[in-house]
Amino acid sequence: GANVDVFWGTMALDDLAVSSNFTVRVNGVAASPPGANQPSGVWTVPSNALTSNPGANDVTVEIDWTDTTTGHVWEQGPGNGQCRNGGQNPCRYDGVPEQVHRSFVGTTGTSGAVALVRSASSGFVSGSPGPSYATVADGGNTVNIWPTVGIKSVLRAGILTTLRLDDPQANQTLQCDPDYAQGQEFSAFRYGCKPWYGANTFTDGPWWNTTTKECPDEGLWFSNGTMPAPYGKNSSGNPWRCVLTAPGMSTGQIGDDIAVATDNCTNINNNSCQQFGCVYDGNYDGKPGNPNGWLQQGGDSRYPRVVNLFIVPYQGGKGLTGAGDTIPILGFASFYVMNWTGSNSNQSDRCPDTTFDHDQNPLTPQIAVPNPPAGAITGVFVETVDYEPGPVDPNAICVEGQLTPCRVTLVR
Predict the structure, then answer these.
(1) ∠63-69-70 over CA atoms, to 5°?
(2) 373-391 per-residue burial string, b: 16 or more CB within 10 A, e: under 16
(3) Residue with the larger pLDDT of the pair 28 and 407
(4) Strand pairing category for 385-386 and 406-407
(5) Please, are residues 293 and 361 in contact by the beta-carbon 8 Å criterion?
(6) Per-residue pLDDT tens for 354-381?
(7) With b meaning 16 or more CB within 10 Å and e meaning fewer, what string describes 240-261?
(8) What percent of the chain has pLDDT above 70?
């Protein structure tokens, strides 16, 4: 519905105030006047009378006035101001539809990261959004509005996400292994990082200075896996809880790096990919004609398109200058690579997943995914359980809904 507060001025003075002579339309739907002889005030359109399509919708208001009662006189009109039924009637106003508002209908295809929007007139409610302003009867009065916007976290399984956006927060690339110097990221993507890492608790201790809000100085890093006291030697019992950042956008290396990380590099050179192929398809959720996507095949964590990422605070990227800056670690997650774009088409994904069903319903109409910009990667975070042998955290518990990769162990 809609409420429109209209002031007709001299048109509604004295005997001219016959509401049936006035018309207010919202998106072409007629509104009801405040009273039979009270055209100025709040005109209303009942609920469910207006419709909006997915996405943005302009809301227009058109106001018109025509008085054909010959006994009425409008002193502001041309000539003698005598109202008449016919041409040259001065007692009329023909308005045009004017945009006054905009509605937005959010769907999985139109709302992006926005999951909830409310406008409350009673201020914020601690811990939850305030009541919707649509339920507040204000009688046409001016009230203060507190908008509440809920943002959908990309750190959830099945949310289409773009990594490595080029922005002022640095390039989202990290240096995780002291054996690979700057410029040798290809080897890190090919073999992985050998040092142990752990989540930062942000409490007093060597890995977080609660006074300066900083990680250890970058000059202490990458010295054969050993740092001076109180940090000590890197091990499973003493993991690094901060990580170094890498400089530059490195657009030219992204194609090489992700190709070798996903086993789609068919000819590996010393520090680059010489030939790209389609060894492992990027099909994530199943498509008509190609229904056997990774999701339908059980979501095996060993599939090469599943890569592991560091999760770091976005705001921690503020003020970074490039190589050697340190940033705390929040945790880790698995990410399914659907597509990547190198510095040219030869370095880009050979068999990307270019459509996506946000509801993960196989064989339903898919949503087209824009090609990622140069040096970027698109995909989704996924929940993975690792069945491979190797070091196991005896205290780790697999929790459904968490992105942190976990490993099943037998206990008695």
Answers:
(1) 130
(2) ebbbbbbbbbbbebeeeee
(3) 28
(4) parallel
(5) no
(6) 888 766 665 567 778 878 888 889 999 9
(7) bbbbbbbbebbbbbbbbbbbbb
(8) 77
361 vs 285: CA distance, rounded Å: 8
Q: How far apart are CA 77 and CA 91, in angstroms?
A: 7
The DSSP code for 203 is S
Q: Which of 3-7, 158-162, 401-405, 406-410 bottoms out in mean pLDDT, i.e. has the lowest?
A: 406-410
Do the Cβ atoms of 272 and 256 come closer than 8 Å? yes
Q: Phi and psi at residue 389, in whole multiples of 5°?
A: -70, 160
Closest C-alpha among 308, 283, 303, 265 to residue 403: 308
Any residues with CB less than 8 A from the CB of 34 and at least 6 apart, and which?
19, 40, 41, 42, 43
Report DSSP letters for 322-365, one per residue: STT-EEE--EEEEEEEEEE--SSGGGS-SS---EE-TT--TTSP
Sequence-separated (6 or more) residues with CB below 8 Å from residue 141: none
- DSSP secondary structure string, 226-285? EETTTTEE-BTTB-B-EEEE--S--HHHHHHHHHHHTT-EEEE-SSSEEEE--SS----S
Sequence-separated (6 or more) residues with CB below 8 Å from residue 112: none
β-bridge mates for residue 57, sequence order: 103
Is the separation of the CB atoms in 382 and 336 below 8 Å?
A: yes
Spatial separation of the C-alpha atoms in residues 188 and 83, rounded to whole Å: 86
The residue behind tokens 């001219």 is: 16
For the record, the structure tokens of 144 come out as: 């203060």
pLDDT digits (tens, 9 = 90+) for 269-327: 888 899 999 999 999 988 877 788 898 888 888 899 999 899 988 767 666 665 568 88
Between 147 and 23, whose confidence is greater?
Answer: 23
Q: Please answer whether residues 225 and 234 qualify as being in contact, where contact means their C-beta atoms are separated by less than 8 angstroms.
A: yes
Q: Do the Cβ atoms of 176 and 221 come closer than 8 Å? A: no
pTM higher than the cut 0.70: no
Query: 239: which 2 tokens?
Result: 């993991």
Q: Which of 259, 329, 334 is nearest to 294 (CA)?
A: 334
* 3-state SS assignment for residue 19: helix
Number of neighbouring beta carbons within 10 Å of residue 43? 25
Q: Which helix (H) or strand (E) holds 190?
A: helix 185-191
Evaluate the omega torsion of the peptide bond into residue 230 and state whether it is cis, within 30 degrees of 0. yes
